[in-house]
C-alpha cells in the first residue's frame, strides 16, 4: 500500500448560505482511531491540509519536507506556475525588469516583505491560522500597487523575493482550495443541484471576462495603430473612452508590448492575448499577489460578494466548525487528477 500521510484539521466558519471561513487549526494526529477517508476527486480537502501544514513550518523547511512532495504532485496550480513561468519570462525580460528597479522601488519591496511576514507570523501561531487577521494583507498589496504607480494586473516586471512568492503562493492556493471545500459543503445542502449548485474555477474566478478583455485589447491595439491618422480631438475622445470603459484591455496591451514578441507574432492575436493572461495569472509574482488578494477579499467580505454575486445570502448565524480527516498514500500521486 505504501506510506500513508494523515491530515487532521478544523475549519471554523461563520454560518451563512455560503460559510465564511474564520480560522484553520491543525489537530493532533489520531491515527486509525478516526474514520479517515481518501480525499475528494480534485483533492481540495487534502490540499488545504498540506498547504496549512507547510505554512506552520519555518520557511527553509517547506521545500524539503515530505508534505511538499505530496503537494507538488497533487496541486495543479504548481504545474501551471512552472509551465506559465517558462512562457512569460525570458532572459531579456528578466534583465530588463531587474535593471529598472529604482532605489525607491527596492525600499518599497523591502517594506512589503517585512510587513507581509509580520502579518503572516502574527496570525499563524500554535497550529492555528487566523484567516480574518490575514485580510490585513489586502491594503498591503494595495499600497504596493500605489507605490509602484502601475497596476499589478498583467504586470510582468514585478519581482518580489522567491521566498515571498513561494509563501504567498502557498497561502493563495490554500485559500482557493478552502473555498472549494466550502462550495462543496454548500452544494450538498441545496435543494436542486442541477439549478442551484456553485463551482470554483482556477481561471475565470479571477479573470471572469478573459475573452472580452482580449477583444477590448485588440480594439485598443487597432486604435493605437490608426491614432496618428485620426483628428486629434476625436482621437483624444476615443482614447478617453478606452481608458474609461475598457481599462483592462488597455492595461493588457500596454503589458504585452513590454513582453516577449511572440505574443503578437502568432496568426491568432486573440488567442495570443488569452494565453498571455493565463501566463500572467499563474507565471508571475504579480499574478500570485492578485489571486491572493481576491481570495482574501472573499474571506473578508464573504464569498457571495466577491465570487458569487448572484446569490442572496441568508442572515448571519452563530459560528460553527467542522473537522477534516483525510489520508494520502504515495500511490495516489502517480496519476493526480488535474483541475
Briefly say what this structure is:
The protein contains 16 helices and 5 strands. The chain is α+β, with helices and mostly antiparallel strands.
Helix share bin: 55-70%
Question: Please, what is the oligomeric state?
Answer: single chain
Number of structural domains: 1
Give the overall average pLDDT.
85
Largest sheet strand order: 3-4-2-1-5
> How many E strands?
5
**Whole-Å distance between the termini?**
25 Å
Written overview of the protein:
By secondary structure, the protein is of the alpha+beta class. It has one domain. About 55% of the residues lie in helices and about 10% in strands. The protein has 16 helices and 5 strands. The protein has helices at about 45-55, 60, 65-75, 75-90, 90-100, 105-120, 130-135, 135-150, 160-185, 195, 210-225, 230-245, 245-255, 270-285, 285-300, 305; strands spanning about 5-15, 20-25, 125, 130, 320-330. Strands 3-4-2-1-5 form a 5-stranded antiparallel beta sheet. A hairpin with a 5-residue loop joins strand 1 (about 5-15) and strand 2 (about 20-25). Helix 6 (about 105-120) packs antiparallel against helix 8. The longest helix is centred in the middle third of the chain and has 26 residues, at about 160-185. The radius of gyration is 22 Å and the shape is globular. It starts with a strand and ends in a 10-residue tail after the last strand. Residues about 90-105 and about 335-339 have low confidence and may be disordered.
Amino acid at each position: 500500500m505504501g506510506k500513508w500521510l494523515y491530515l487532521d484539521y478544523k475549519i471554523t466558519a461563520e454560518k451563512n448560505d455560503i460559510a465564511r471561513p474564520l480560522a484553520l487549526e491543525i489537530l493532533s494526529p489520531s491515527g486509525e482511531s478516526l474514520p479517515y477517508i481518501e480525499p475528494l476527486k480534485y483533492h481540495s480537502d487534502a490540499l488545504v491540509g498540506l498547504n496549512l501544514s507547510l505554512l506552520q513550518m519555518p520557511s527553509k523547511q517547506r521545500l524539503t519536507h515530505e508534505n511538499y512532495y505530496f503537494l507538488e504532485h497533487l496541486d495543479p496550480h504548481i504545474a501551471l506556475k512552472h509551465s506559465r513561468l517558462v512562457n512569460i519570462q525570458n532572459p531579456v525580460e528578466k534583465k530588463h525588469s531587474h535593471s529598472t528597479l529604482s532605489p525607491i522601488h527596492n525600499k518599497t519591496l523591502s517594506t512589503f516583505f517585512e510587513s507581509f511576514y509580520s502579518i503572516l507570523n502574527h496570525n499563524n501561531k500554535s497550529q492555528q491560522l487566523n484567516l480574518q487577521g490575514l485580510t490585513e494583507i489586502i491594503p498591503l498589496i494595495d499600497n504596493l500597487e500605489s507605490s509602484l504607480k502601475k497596476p499589478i494586473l498583467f504586470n510582468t516586471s514585478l519581482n518580489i523575493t522567491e521566498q515571498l512568492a513561494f509563501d504567498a503562493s502557498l497561502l493563495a492556493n490554500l485559500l482557493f482550495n478552502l473555498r472549494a471545500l466550502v462550495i462543496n459543503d454548500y452544494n450538498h445542502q441545496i435543494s436542486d443541484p442541477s439549478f442551484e449548485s456553485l463551482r470554483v474555477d482556477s481561471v475565470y474566478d479571477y479573470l471572469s471576462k478573459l475573452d472580452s478583455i482580449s477583444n477590448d485589447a485588440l480594439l485598443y491595439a487597432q486604435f493605437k495603430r490608426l491614432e496618428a491618422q485620426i483628428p486629434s480631438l476625436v482621437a483624444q475622445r476615443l482614447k478617453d473612452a478606452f481608458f474609461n470603459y475598457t481599462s483592462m484591455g488597455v492595461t493588457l496591451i500596454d503589458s504585452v508590448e513590454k513582453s516577449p514578441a511572440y505574443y503578437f507574432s502568432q496568426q491568432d492575436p486573440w488567442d495570443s492575448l488569452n494565453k498571455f493572461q493565463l501566463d500572467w495569472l499563474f507565471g508571475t509574482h504579480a499574478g500570485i499577489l492578485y489571486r491572493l488578494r481576491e481570495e482574501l477579499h472573499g474571506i473578508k467580505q464573504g464569498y457571495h460578494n466577491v465570487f458569487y454575486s448572484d446569490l442572496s445570502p441568508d442572515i448571519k448565524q452563530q459560528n460553527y466548525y467542522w473537522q477534516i480527516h483525510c489520508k494520502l498514500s504515495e500511490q495516489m500521486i502517480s496519476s493526480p487528477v488535474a483541475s
